[in-house]
Amino acid sequence: MANFEEQATQTLFDKNYITGEQFEAIRAYRGLNLFSVHNELKFLLYLSMLLFTSGIGILIYQNIDTIGHTAILGLLLLVTLTCFYFCFKNHQGFKKEEVPFLNPLYDYLVLTAVILSCTFVGYLQFQYQTFGTHYGLATLVPTIISLFCAYYFDNKSVLSIGITGMAAYLGLSVDPKHVFENEMIDNTYLSYVGLAFGLTLLLWVLYTTKINLKKHFNLVYLTFSLHLVGIACMVNLCDDYWLPFGLVLAIATYYFYNLSFQIRSISLFIFTVLYGFIGMNIFFVRVLDSIHFDDFFSIFFFTTPFYFIGTIIGFIKLIKHFNKNTSDDSIR
Amino acid sequence: MIAYDKTLLDNIYIDEEANRLKQSGFISTEQYKLIHSQLQKLKSQNNLFIRIGFFILGCMLYSSICGLLSLLWLGICDSVFVNAGDRNDAYLFIVYILSIIGFGSKEYMSKNMKYFGFGLDDAFILGAILALLIGIGLTFEENYNPNYLAVILVMAIASSIAYLRYLNLSLALLACFGITASLAYMTFEYLTIGKIILPFVMLLFSGGSYFISKKALQNLTVPYYYNGLKLAKGFCLILFYLAGNYYVVRELNFSLSENYFYDDVSPEIPFALFFWAFTFSIPMVYLFFSLKNKDRMMLWIGFLALCFAFFTFRMYHHVLPPEVALTIGGLIVFAFTYFAIKRTKHNETGLTFKVDRFTNPNAFANVQALVIASQFGLKPEAKVEESPMEFGGGGFSGGGSNGDF
Prior knowledge:
The complex is a heterodimer.
Chain A: H1 4-14, H2 20-31, E1 35-36, H3 38-62, H4 64-67, H5 69-90, H6 105-128, H7 135-153, H8 156-170, H9 176-180, H10 188-211, H11 218-237, H12 242-263, H13 266-290, H14 297-325
Chain B: H1 6-23, H2 29-38, H3 48-80, H4 84-111, H5 120-139, H6 148-166, H7 169-190, H8 194-219, H9 226-244, H10 246-255, H11 272-293, H12 296-316, H13 322-344, E1 351-352, H14 365-376
Helix pairs in contact in B: 1-2, 3-4, 3-5, 4-5, 5-6, 6-7, 7-8, 7-9, 8-9, 9-12, 11-12
């Protein structure tokens, strides 16, 4: 079989786009005939972690009456502490910049430990009412543990648990499942909370950028922030006081749009444009609705193809703009 | 046969290679930018999200054009034709016109606007095929009984030709489905013993096509059809496994029989032992050959097939309660992975745990964070009763565990 990748490299060399040295290096590297199963094995590790923690969770849930609470709690605590012990032993300690573990195995161990400790606290609260009726506290303790671990061990997955924990303390469920099922915000009060929380996360990002604290976490925070602000605004756009929220969404979209250039994040860019676009359409419909446009409905129907052509041209322009402004030439 | 300008199309593949070299660090970003700006090439969207976004916009555009034209045409028909039969023919006519518009726009986009996999063009070609299928379905309808065979045959032919001309992978996938579906439908509907031999026909067909596409891949001299053939190869592997999987054969056999409507349990199938052996041996064969031939796609398909094999087994034999199986399974997978990493850590060539510079090591990182957040994210206390895990307290209070302990 002709190897097309090597052919293409040859063409690049023939056209003088790459130097002879580079060409030789590439040829030599391809000649090693590597078959890396790095991603696959890491995925298996991750899978085993998911299976194990889920299995343990259900086991505890089902056998509560037979094993006895103290035994379960003790076992949980023991496993958690063992995990934490190995993590602390093998980590270099807290630094402001990115410090990954030398062995990727420990990333998953941290994750296991944090999830188990969340289970532990939840179980403690349920069974013994340790925190009494201060239900918020039962959410806050695991949140603090996960935030601490996220910053100490430099783990993005744990950070996202921490953020969902903070949101849960405020009464929001921001995990992706609820967001997709549109159950995140079901009343106006919560939407205000969501908006405020999203803006707070944004402020926190600005502050951490200033003091150079774990800058690679910014994307996670900004993603949560964008979705919170976007969804909260959209919920309110369909509600009574829609005009001010349209304004807020417009400002937020503009801000995130510029921010996505700065941090060169394509996912942020796409979702910003998406929220902006959907918000704009809802806004148009509300305006048309409020000026009683129904009588001209057929005219409206005839303009839709042109409206879509217009939006497509607009989107192409936006992407070109993004490509031009980020130093990396093309979006991949 | 190919609609695009050959040099521009070639440059796409060269640009892809340059990008790969940049990602793997063999050439610098500046060098890549130079190459990227100097090569004249077709316009295509490399980012999947943006492509999907444009695809959705393209669908909206195409459907709004369709809606507009059909409304106009309906108005004309109602005033011109008095006879109901004539009117129906006229209605049908517009469906074909819409399909032609779709094909025409795709042709225009690839020839003049130089779009290749931009999202918009995908929407138009798929929309055109859909319109064509609707038209065919309505034309060959008898007594409100659509002729499925005509529809899927046309789907197979139209999407194969469209793939050969436009090289969009979605079309290749559609063609694979169309061909398989036509064959399966013909076997099942027109042969008396079709229901019994269906799995074997599928096995033969997928095995045969696998080797044909493998051969074709080896004899390929230009890279245009490379991806499509690879897709066909993967499709054949999946189909081959599913055709012999015990669960699929048994349940499909049952759902095609009359008893299906009486809420019965599916009966045991003939050659059960053969299918059981097939269910478990084929994933192993896949895994073995994928590691031997360094075929990543086959490795993944083999892994998924193995998972499906376990699922099949657990479907009919309840040996362990699921939670115990999960826990033990997790431990076994962990042990296996741990030793596999230890074994392959220091290999310099061939199979290795070392990061290949040509594959992206962080491919899963972001997905993982998302899955973790959705699986284990904390939920507010008010909703506690709904969640079965973690804080889920709902069922705990059952057997007197609530009182003094």
